[in-house]
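Q: Hi! First time doing this. I have a protein sequence and I read that you can turn it into a structure. Is that right? Here it is:
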Amino acid sequence: MADKTFRLEVVSPDSELYSGDATFLVAQTTVGELGILASHAPMLAELAPGGCVVVTESGGNRTAFAVQGGFLSVTGESVTVLAEHAQFASDIDVAAERSVLESADEGSAEFLRAKSRVRAAEAVG
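A: Yes, that's right. Below is the predicted 3D structure, encoded as structure tokens:
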């Protein structure tokens, strides 16, 4: 039996990073980590500072995005990640970001960006 899918869009103000079908999404929000499957009840959630979004695509591949700020919008048929800034996990230099985590003040914008990037890379690494 094939898994049910939903349409997923990951966008930021300057680009559309991802558009495709997914079977599962995990997002870190200000109210906790949320898992989304097809036909999820409609909702809107604020993405957590320093968080990431992990996607299981319809073909079974997993991909992740470091996201800083924004919202997760869920309808019965689709999910949209509206991020202030987003980056593919595969484009992240994990060693450099870990160095930033060690030197930046905890809770600073620089620290949260690095934390988001490390989380995304580790989620699929």
